[in-house]
Amino acid sequence: MSKKDNVKKIKSYIDDILGTKSSLRDKLPSKKSKEKELFCEILQNLQFVNSRTMGMKHDYKINMMDYDDPFYIALENMFQLHYTQEQRNVINWWLYDKFLPTGEILVLTHKDTEEIIPSDTAEDVWDLIQEQKNAKKDNK
Fold first, then answer.
1. Could you give the residue ranges of the DSSP H alpha helices within 19-121?
2. Has this prediction a pTM greater than 0.70?
3. Is the pLDDT of residue 46 over 80?
């Protein structure tokens, strides 16, 4: 049974219970989920732009870094407004160091337990930053 069919079935149950016609709509996104979505989109776009710049330099010997620098500086300044140095370090590591030009991918490990910390996606980076934010609140 598809999700649409399930929704119709639930709606009919609600109509029967209430004895009137009802309507269902998707849940409105919370501010936090919208913030996460925007953050992930920004990181994915930055990763794309950075890899495109590096590809131009490697493949065509065209250095776009001077052209792109003001853009990166503006974004770094915006990150500075919203994130701690520790959080920015995670963001910058993911953007510029995690994915090596050789195709290798670095992993993040917990300093005490050596456990691998998920960091493959922009969503993983968001989760790490939220953990840092929550840990900082707990320590206050």
1. 31-60, 65-82, 85-92
2. yes
3. yes
